[in-house]
Design goal:
The complex is a heterodimer of chains A (290) and B (189).
Chain A lengths: L1 E5 L2 H5 L4 H13 L2 E5 L8 H7 L1 H18 L3 E3 L2 H16 L1 H12 L11 E3 H9 L1 H6 L9 E4 L20 H8 L3 E2 L13 H4 L1 H17 L4 E4 L2 H9 L1 H8 L7 E3 H8 L4 H4 L9 H4 L4
Parallel strand pairs in A: 1-2, 1-3, 3-4, 5-6, 5-7, 7-8
Helix pairs in contact in A: 2-14, 3-4, 4-5, 4-6, 5-6, 11-13
Chain B lengths: L9 H6 L15 H5 L10 H9 L3 H5 L12 H5 L6 H15 L8 H15 L4 H12 L1 H6 L1 H9 L12 H16 L5
Helix pairs in contact in B: 7-8
Classes of the chains: A alpha/beta (290), B mainly alpha (189).
Chain lengths: 290, 189
């Protein structure tokens, strides 16, 4: 059994990506991983906070890191935004002593201190590097039999700093699909942006980016697409009908969390994986495995 | 003069912000602009913005819409041959613009970011439904109506919670104390 401190983030806990949280837990259990949720965590602030109040945003993230440090385990999150924010906070606190002094002073007001020792990981990294493709493969109960899957990484799981995969041409998700018996389709847009939170404030712009991603996936023969971030999944799934309306397209591409696809291959139940929460129904392509 | 304590020029001001110091290293190669998915929507491209900042065009830079179109996709950052953290530089310019009240009126992104930050700080959590409703009502109630089909789809599939996750009272107080202290310390510089 491997133990981690778990940071679900707002979307995957009680937000729009509950199914990501459920399937992350279910798949982890199957792989002998125990994800213990960080007690009383707060929102990491994501990109919006760091764009309007820098010091406040570092403090939001630092409280979580300080709480996690007490447990002494790696901090794992399924959310690419949380992942980038915590890693940014860690590296900035190391690099800028003046900033660290201010954050320390703020934390002290809450009787907390942070020494910069928490290693922040994305759940994908934990699965492919701590567990590995072979062990994942040996857990497969229903081989995906060549299901054509577009591996969508998005931005923040691979950028900005060198992490567990290449910043522009990542491979970990491709190999993960293969280890489940699926076929990763060539997907040139695999690490391009889905529009992020600008779907809310600049919808036309984001819909255009989403259209390009869907187009690239479908043209390469994908039967479904898997995402590693709650916001990427929501943009591609919930806004797919808006893209169709705006661009007079006909996309009908199921968008899954990567943990849901793993769960299907592991033979877990539809309920445990929250497959019914998809806006574009996934049953059509997954029926033969369920 | 001690670096970072007294900003005589706009470049010094930016350089004093953590992550902003790279602005001095730019060679105007344009790699960031060529990499940016949104450069064509910006009044000034990322590389132009840097050139303008170095020319001391403080007002023009801070009232530009450019940084508000940054998606934080970090493609420019990983490609910059000078190692400049452009995305973070954009965030720094956004924070400066907010502090100065120089927010571009044609983009709703600053209002959206501020609504988000407001919820994150007050509740310690981001209730998506409440945040989006608040934002749409604040900026364009008509858009709230147009969003009903998307919202209904999410709701039908159990993806729209009205109730927000709450911290324990101790946790909420602790977060409040930390953020109040941070506010009293001024900004990052």
């Amino acid at each position: 059994m491997k133990y981690y401190t778990y940071f679900p983030g707002c979307s995957s806990s009680e937000g729009g990506a509950k199914a990501y949280g459920w399937s992350a837990q279910a798949v982890s259990k199957a792989l002998d991983i125990e994800l213990v949720e960080l007690n009383d965590w707060n929102c990491c602030g994501s990109t919006p906070s760091s764009s309007v109040d820098e010091l406040g945003s570092f403090c939001l993230a630092a409280r979580d890191l300080a709480l996690a440090e007490k447990r002494g385990l790696d901090l794992v999150t399924p959310c690419s935004a949380c992942y980038v924010i915590f890693n940014r906070t860690n590296s900035y606190l190391k690099q800028y002593p003046q900033l660290k002094a201010k954050v320390d002073e703020a934390l002290a007001a809450g009787d907390l201190e942070y020494h910069g020792t928490v290693r922040v990981r994305h759940l994908l990294d934990v699965f492919v590097n701590d567990i590995g493709y072979d062990d994942i493969n040996s857990e497969v109960k229903r081989d995906l039999g060549g299901l054509k899957v577009a591996p969508y990484y998005g931005c923040q799981v691979v950028r900005p700093r060198p992490g567990f995969d290449h910043p522009e041409f990542p491979q970990s998700l491709d190999k993960l699909i293969a280890s489940l018996g699926g076929e990763p389709v060539p997907f040139p847009m695999k690490s391009r942006c889905c529009g992020g939170s600008l779907i809310i404030s600049e919808e036309a712009l984001a819909l255009d980016l989403i259209r390009k991603l869907l187009d690239s996936a479908v043209r390469n023969g994908a039967e479904c697409l898997i995402a590693v971030c709650p916001l990427c999944q929501t943009n591609l799934d919930a806004y797919q009908s808006r893209v169709n309306k705006k661009f007079k397209t006909n996309f009908n591409l199921p968008i899954l969390f990567f943990t849901q696809l793993m769960g299907v291959a592991f033979g877990l139940s539809e309920e445990d994986l929250g497959l019914k929460t998809s806006i574009v129904p996934a049953e059509r392509v997954l029926a033969k495995y369920l | 003069m001690e670096k970072g304590t007294l900003a005589n020029t706009f470049v010094e001001e930016i350089s004093a912000i953590p992550g902003g110091e790279g602005i001095r290293l730019c060679i105007q190669c344009g790699t960031c602009t060529a990499s940016c998915p949104n450069a064509d929507r910006m009044e000034h491209t990322p590389s132009q913005l840097i050139a303008m900042a170095r020319a001391g065009m403080r007002g023009e830079v801070l009232s530009s819409n450019a940084m508000w179109f940054c998606l934080s996709c970090y493609l420019c950052t990983v490609r910059c041959p000078r190692g400049i953290k452009q995305t973070d530089l954009m965030h720094a310019l956004e924070c400066l613009a907010v502090r100065e009240g120089l927010i571009h009126e044609k983009t709703l992104t600053p209002a959206m970011y501020r609504s988000f930050n407001h919820f994150a700080c007050i509740l310690g959590n981001l209730p998506e439904f409440g945040f989006m409703t608040w934002f749409y009502l604040l900026t364009n109630p008509l858009r709230a109506l147009r969003m009903i089909p998307v919202a209904l789809n999410l709701f039908k599939r159990g993806r729209l919670s009205i109730r927000a996750r709450r911290l324990t009272p101790e946790g909420a107080n602790q977060l409040r104390a930390i953020l109040d202290k941070a506010e009293s310390l001024g900004g990052v510089t």
